[in-house]
Each structure stands twice: as C-alpha cells, then as structure tokens.
Amino acid sequence: MVPESLEKALELDPSLITDMQKKYPYIKDEVKKVKAKAKIKRRIYRLRCRVMEVESFKISWENAISKFN
After folding, report:
1. Per-residue pLDDT for 1 more than 60?
2. In 10 A of CB 24, how many CB atoms?
3. 58 φ, ψ to 5°?
4. pLDDT tens digit string along 6-41?
5. How far apart are CA 21 and CA 19, in angstroms?
6. Cα angle value 31/5/32 (rounded, 5°)
7. Which helix (H) or strand (E) holds 32?
C-alpha cells in the first residue's frame, strides 16, 4: 500500500523510484525483517492460545474424572 503523497510524487517524477532504490537499497531488507518478526509474533501468540486451550481442557478433564472416583 503506497501513501497518496508518494503516488503523486511518482506521477510527477517517475525517476524517483530508481533514485530511491539507489539511495536506500536496505529498505527492502528492512521490510522483510519487520514482516518476519511480525510473523514470528503471530505464531507465538497462536501457540500460547493453543497451550491455554490444552491446559483448560486438561483441568476440565481432571475435574470430570475426579467426580467418578
């Protein structure tokens, strides 16, 4: 998603793209790093949710078993 101001600037001067790529070649790598970190955080969150589900199921299962003993 490109900001509107950048779109307008590129419409006025398309050579900005090559200039920006020359001046800031690291931007692409930085974007990849940020996306990778976000992906890892989402995975950790999902794993934590799964652990909480399993723990709550385990507790309810133990309670059910204790009623029959």
Report:
1. no
2. 10
3. -60, -45
4. 778 878 887 887 888 788 777 777 778 888 888 999
5. 5
6. 5
7. helix 27-68
